[in-house]
Structures are given as C-alpha cells and as structure tokens.
Automatic annotation (TrEMBL):
GO terms for molecular function: iron ion binding; tRNA N(6)-L-threonylcarbamoyladenine synthase activity. This is tRNA N6-adenosine threonylcarbamoyltransferase. Substrate binds at I134, V135, S136, G137, G138, D167, G180, D184, N274. It comes from the Bacteria. Pfam families: TsaD. The gene is tsaD. Fe cation binds at H111, H115, D302. Its cofactor is Fe(2+). Belongs to the KAE1 / TsaD family.
Amino acid sequence: WLTLGIETSCDETAVSVVRDGRQVLSSIVASQIPEHQKFGGVVPEVASRQHVETITQVIDEALREAEVSLEQIHQVAVTYGPGLVGALLVGVAAAKALAYGRRLPLNGVNHIEGHLFANFIQSPSLEPPLLALIVSGGHTHLVHMKQYGVYEILGKTRDDAAGEAFDKVARVLGLGYPGGPLIDAAARQGDPRAIDFPRAVVTDHPWDFSFSGLKSAVLNHVNTVRMKGHDVQVADVAASFQQAVVDVLVNKTLDCAVTNGIKQVVLSGGVAANSLLRQTLADRCREQGIAFCAPDLALCTDNGAMIACVGYYDYSLGIRSRWNLNAVAGLSIGERN
Ligand code: ATP
Ligand code: MG
Ligand code: FE
C-alpha cells in the first residue's frame, strides 16, 4: 500500500512516498529558508508563491526517487491545517487534483499529528499509548495519545511556542533565521549557568507552558548589558536561555508522564532537533524507567513522510476526506473538519 504524502503548511514544500504507513521510499523537502532569510522570518505571500512554483517538481522527484509511477500510488494524504492558509491551499489543491484524477482515496492530515507520527516512522515497533511532547515553530503541546485517533491535550503553551522563543532570542542576539539551530550551535561554546533566566510556572495548570517571560528576560539582559557599554556574551546567553527552555520542557514532561502513569514518551517537532533537549529528555526518561523515542533530525522538521504516515492510519480507521476538503489555518489536534 503506497501513500503519497504532501506537506506545504509553512516554508517547506515536501512530498514523500511511504509503504504501509512506516517505510519511507522517498522524502523530498524543498526548503524556502533562503527566500525568507532576507526578511528575518517567513513571509506568507512569498511562501504560497514558492509552493506553487515547486510543488509539481517535488511530486515528480518523490515518485522518481521511490521508483514508482503515479499509477502505483494507492492513496493521497495532505496537510490541511494548521498553518498558513495560502500555503496549505497549494498542497490541498495539488492533492485533490491527483487523487480526483486517479480516483484515489484522499486524506486531509493534521500537521501536528504529523510531527507526532514521525516517531512511528523512526521506531517501527512503537505503538500507543504514549505521551508526546510536540515542540515546533508554532506549537508546544503535551499530548496523551491513547490509541490511533484518540488524543487528550494535557498541556500547551499560553503564549509563545518553544520554537518561536528560539527564533526570537536568536534575532535579539543577531544570530539569524531560523534561530533554533544557531542557538543550539552557539550554546555549545557557552556556560548554561552564566545567567539565571526564569523557569516559568503556570500556577493553575501544572503542564501548561509559558515562554514570553523568558523571552523578555533575555531581551532585558541584552539591553542592560549594551546600555552599560559592554559586549553581550552571545554564547553564554544562548546556553543559559536554552538550558531554561529545556529544564521547563523536560520537568513538565516527566511530571506529566509519571502523574498519568504513561510508560512511553516521544519527542517531536522542529525543536526536537535540539541536542540538549534530546539528550536531557532521554536521560531523565531512562532514570524513570520510561521508554523514549525521538525522530532523526530530518524527521523532526517538516516533511511529507510524517503526513503520509498519519494518512495511512486515518485511512485504516475508516476516515476519508471529501472532494471539498479545505485548508483550516487554526486546526487543533484531534479535531476533524
Ligand atoms: P508548526 O509545526 O508549529 O506549524 P513549523 O512547521 O514552522 O511550525 P517546524 O518546521 O516543525 O515548525 O520547526 C521549526 C522550528 O524548529 C523553528 O522554530 C526552529 O528554530 C526550530 N528548530 C530547528 N532546529 C532546532 C534546534 N536544533 N534547536 C532548537 N530549535 C530548533
Ligand atoms: Mg519550517
Ligand atoms: Fe511543523
């Protein structure tokens, strides 16, 4: 059973061919990062236009690399939310055209579920129940996946997403875009105890997150240092900021897993590429006797394979999208339109 997975929710045009839900035959990712770099962030109009220009090529390349023809594909899966509406529409239109033309089943997929499912590709024997820490450019979620298609959100961010915090702090430090990998690299040369940044507690809900206070604390620190006429110690600030984010993410995830008696933890989303987060969460899970999985770096950031994987499982649950499938910018996990 071959699924074609299409992803255009943000700044990657990505297409993949996946066999039986978990075996990746090809995964092509055309990144638009150079296009957006000059603006210091993703420009929605530019993203849509880039998707239109590259989608056909990326589909062809994914088929070619998988050594299959369109005639051999059984199902088309596509991200229909959450994301930039104009960007999503390009993938949805392409998927509908392909599926309708060949009378194939069409499955609209939730992008955040996609990030979680990268772990099912990574680990062929992984099965729910599990607790997923999903940390991406726009989302920070603790999700209890009880079985396929059944989710309970146990925690989420009240303000900024973890990835957003990385990107904003990188901009303040003058490191560039996207900020996550640059902070990760800078932090290696710095002292994580140099500056004691706040670890936010959300009083009425133990597993919710808040990163805006931390972001402001970094900004204040940098401004104060500059006002005194000193140089900002970029590596120390990066390391101390990263340590604060990782402490909060790891402590809440462990507490949530232990409190709810969940025996497996998976990490996913673009921030799952962070080296300190991967290492720290792996170590803490091992200490607690909790199984742990994190996808390889290429599966952490946006890709078509994770979308094909969700589409495969949705289809096997009997879920089908109609031909009027539309982009839903604010789609939340577990929701269906
Ligand atoms: P969403 O999935 O919420 O819709 P998105 O698709 O834009 O948003 P992803 O592509 O999943 O987000 O992840 C991109 C984010 O991951 C960016 O914020 C980026 O800075 C961050 N990121 C990537 N690598 C690292 C890293 N090594 N350390 C920290 N953050 C990282
Ligand atoms: Mg991206
Ligand atoms: Fe994403």
